Amino acid sequence: MWSYTFRWEHPAEEVYVTGTFDKWSKSTLLEKSGSAHEKTVELPETGEKILYKFVADGSWSYDHTAKSEADDSGNLNNVLYPADLKHTSTSKSHSGPTSAAAAAISSVAPGAS
Prior knowledge:
Oligomer: single chain
Largest sheet: 6 strands, antiparallel
Helix content: under 10%
């Protein structure tokens, strides 16, 4: 799993982030922190760029201070590339072997030949 911290640093009371990662469903409300809104969002590993926009007080906008590009219809969107994302570990730690070689080694009892 991957994550990215979306941040809107422009005047607004309520800000959502939406994009190709949620099929443009306006599913993520950013949290207000001082004069900015932000939230770290878990994103699927797609290997492709992610297009997104903000919905600030009901108006769809892109952040002109962040990377952006036009889509096939000429709409300006912000864009994230795989290198922009932070890898997050979703597996829980365990005490078992982590590889087949480790499993083979750990299964040998002391004194066995």
